[in-house]
Amino acid sequence: MSSYDPSNADPEGGGKPSFDKQPPQPGANGSPYNGKPSDPGDYQGSYGGPAPGGSPYGSYGGAPGGVPQGGPPQIAGMPPLGTWPSRILARLIDYVLIQVVAFAVTLPISGFDRNGWTEGVWVYYALYLVYDGVMLSRDGQTLGKKVMNVRVAMLSDGSRPNRQAAWTRAAVFTVPAVLCCGLWWLVDGMFGVFDKPYRQCIHDKAAKTVVVSTN
């Protein structure tokens, strides 16, 4: 007769249940499906972000071509526009220089005779026309403009004015003044004050030039 030993008896299902080993938990030692993306979020790029290398259209909100909003349009190679105080002082310096030369030329010939002063005015206009045309043809600067750090430039690209532009500018500034004296210079200057965006006087419009800073 066999004896029953309860210690050797197996429960239903065969043997004692063991809790020593736990089944692997997802995420503890990696996915059991290693090598396969488990989620669309595994894509390395950020959703909705810019493509590698940046956007071909630049930053949002910028003006086309990189032109800053407000102010005169920027032309390639164009320095900043010259200020009105610098332009006016440059003209005054040139005016005084030419007056001194014209006076020195006419005084020995006519003395202080009234007709001599009339001749002096004609000499002044002629000298100023030649002086302005020659100096601007060389480097776009008269002596007054050199002192005030401004120069004349072509509107198209900011380069030195060519011979035709230089002499056109000088002629339109000087010749009408012979007919209406200094009134023409007042009208010419006021035109530039209200001109947008390049502050061009009438002689600038005629020659397609602008006055820019050399600083």
UniProtKB/TrEMBL annotation:
Cellular compartment(s): Cell membrane
TM annotation in the entry: 88-109, 121-138, 166-187
Pfam families referenced in this protein's UniProt entry, alphabetically: RDD
Presence of the UniProt keyword Cell membrane in the record: yes
Positions of the RDD domain: 83-208
Cellular-component GO terms for this entry: plasma membrane
Region (Disordered): 1-78
Biased composition (Gly residues): 46-69
Domain of life: Bacteria
Keywords linked to the UniProt accession: Cell membrane, Membrane, Transmembrane, Transmembrane helix
Membrane topology: Multi-pass membrane protein
Name by which UniProt lists this protein: RDD family protein
Classification lineage: Bacteria, Bacillati, Actinomycetota, Actinomycetes, Kitasatosporales
